[in-house]
Amino acid sequence: MDRDQDIDERFGSALRRSYGRLAWWIVRLNRVLEPSRAAEPPRTQLPPRSAVPPRRPVPPRPE
Q1: What's the rounded mean pLDDT across residues 34-43?
Q2: What is the pLDDT of residue 46?
Q3: How far apart are CA 47 and CA 6, in angstroms?
């Protein structure tokens, strides 16, 4: 019984190791094959300003 358990533990650890390597390769390939982001083009013009009415001057407060 002890020998069977030992074989199961070795098989389980080997399986985990194999899946770990597979996952590592998948992540690595995913990073390599992922297209890089294109840089945003520089703005040639400023964005249009919203139309806001000019502020009226406020008379000074009496003291």
Answers
A1: 78
A2: 79
A3: 70
The Cα–Cα gap between 8 and 29 comes to 31
CA distance 32 to 30: 6
Element (H, E) at 3: helix 2-33
Separation between Cα atoms, residue 50 and residue 63, nearest integer Å: 37
CA atoms of 8 and 14, how far apart (whole Å): 10
* Buried b / exposed e along 6-43 (16+ C-beta atoms within 10 A): eeeeeeeeeeeeeeeeeeeeeeeeeeeeeeeeeeeeee
Q: Is the pTM of this model over 0.70?
A: no
